[in-house]
Q: What sequence folds into this?
């Protein structure tokens, strides 16, 4: 459920026609719906109301300060994966005691920054990282709270690039080695073991992998308790999928219903790390058709947005619906490749897509572009990154300005010897 809808054949975000935003801000631009973000967060939060929990929004999905501020105002914490994300989370006012830090390659500087900031805990991904955190904490005369991320070896049936909980994955500690690692962690002088973490992947459209993972995790919790290592926080990660085209992922309520008995049994405070399900369908990428190019083999709609703005189609072969901002009832259709201006054959937003006829100048809305979209944008081909706009009912706010050419060269310098 989201707040992008047609009204008199014109596509709106909440109460604002997208055409108006294009006129005021130019294209391409990202547009987020405040009502949708709010609704999705609250739906997730309410679904788990019967267990003590903290939602740590996975901010790698969307880390715009205004979006984070909104999440924070709704009670969210943050799941971070870098020092940069910690900086953003704190800037947005997310309380440190609701921040958890995952990722396989935390640097000493990042560990130090997180300890200084007094975050809730680290999600530790390896034995070597545990040693590093212990050392850094010792140097600071502190104790580091950690959760060990276990890899329950569950196939989440999603794209291999976003599947993280299988044996061959770089994430987490193998379930068979977990007890040993927990015991090692508990013995380290400056480590305080407080949690267990299991995040198995992203864009999951079935409940069963969550249940299977939790069932394994509960066994481990039980063993740990028996060994005198009580666990206070159970972090079940994120991963719930959304509808991009014809997927039918469970509603958060259905997921919660299925796993609440298991969560209760854990007797832990639950950490939830949803990302995509909160923001994915709350955003779109608005783009304008520059040219139509008709060849013997294909028909291309060349648009002003490209893979540097939205890489998911190129990277994951992901499907994004593409809707005309002005729909014409019963319009004839044709088959298009929707491509950007970047000099790569992999630069496309859609391939072999049947769409109502489009012509140069038309506006198109690339749907479901709120998650892993702007956060993955780059300056490839020296293209300034596009603005992000937050719509709240009848008002729109630029929450990130369009980059300028000057922004592109920020920090670059030509050494003296090249100047003469
Ligand atoms: C990416 C990630 C998430 C969020 O995944 P979604 O599929 O966006 O919900 C949660 N936890 C961890 C550790 C992650 O890496």
A:
């Amino acid at each position: 459920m989201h707040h992008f809808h047609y009204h008199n054949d014109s596509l709106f975000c909440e109460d604002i026609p997208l055409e108006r935003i294009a006129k005021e801000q130019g294209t391409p631009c990202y547009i987020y719906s405040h009502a949708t973000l709010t609704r999705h967060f609250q739906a997730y939060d309410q679904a788990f109301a019967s267990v003590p929990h903290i939602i740590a929004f996975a901010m790698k999905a969307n880390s715009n300060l205004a979006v984070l501020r909104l999440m924070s105002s709704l009670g969210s914490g943050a799941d971070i994966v870098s020092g940069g994300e910690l900086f953003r989370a704190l800037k947005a006012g997310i309380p440190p005691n609701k921040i958890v830090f995952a990722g396989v390659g935390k640097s000493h500087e990042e560990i130090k920054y997180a300890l200084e900031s007094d975050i809730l805990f680290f999600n530790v991904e390896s034995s070597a990282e545990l040693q590093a955190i212990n050392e850094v904490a010792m140097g600071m005369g502190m104790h580091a709270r950690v959760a060990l991320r276990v890899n329950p070896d569950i196939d989440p049936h999603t794209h291999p690039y976003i599947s993280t909980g299988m044996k061959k994955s770089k994430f987490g500690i193998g379930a068979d080695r977990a007890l040993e690692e927990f015991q090692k962690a508990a013995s380290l002088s400056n480590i305080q073991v407080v949690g267990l973490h299991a995040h198995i992947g992203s864009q999951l459209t079935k409940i069963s992998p969550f249940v299977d993972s939790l069932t394994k995790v509960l066994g481990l919790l039980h063993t740990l308790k028996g060994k005198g290592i009580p666990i206070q926080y159970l972090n079940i990660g994120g991963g719930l999928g959304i509808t991009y085209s014809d997927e039918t992922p469970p509603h958060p309520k259905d997921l919660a219903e299925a796993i609440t008995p298991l969560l209760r049994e854990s007797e832990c405070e639950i950490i939830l790390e949803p990302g995509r399900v909160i923001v994915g369908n709350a955003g779109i990428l608005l783009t304008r058709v520059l040219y139509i190019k008709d060849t013997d083999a294909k028909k291309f709609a060349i648009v002003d947005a490209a893979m540097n703005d939205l890489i998911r189609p190129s990277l994951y072969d992901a499907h994004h619906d593409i809707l005309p901002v002005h729909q014409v009832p019963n319009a004839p259709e044709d088959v298009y490749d929707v491509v950007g201006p970047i000099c790569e054959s992999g630069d496309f937003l859609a391939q072999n897509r049947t769409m109502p006829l489009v012509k140069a100048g038309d506006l198109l809305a690339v749907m479901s572009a709120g998650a892993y979209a702007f956060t993955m944008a780059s300056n490839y081909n020296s293209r300034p990154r596009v603005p992000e706009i937050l719509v709240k009912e009848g008002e729109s706010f630029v929450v990130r300005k369009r980059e300028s050419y000057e922004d592109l060269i920020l920090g670059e310098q030509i050494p003296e010897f090249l100047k003469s």
Q: What stands out?
A: The chain has a mean pLDDT of 96. Residues 208-226 form the longest helix (19 residues). Residues 58, 60-61, 79, 102, 199, 202, 237-239, 273-277 surround pyridoxal-5'-phosphate (CB under 6 Å).
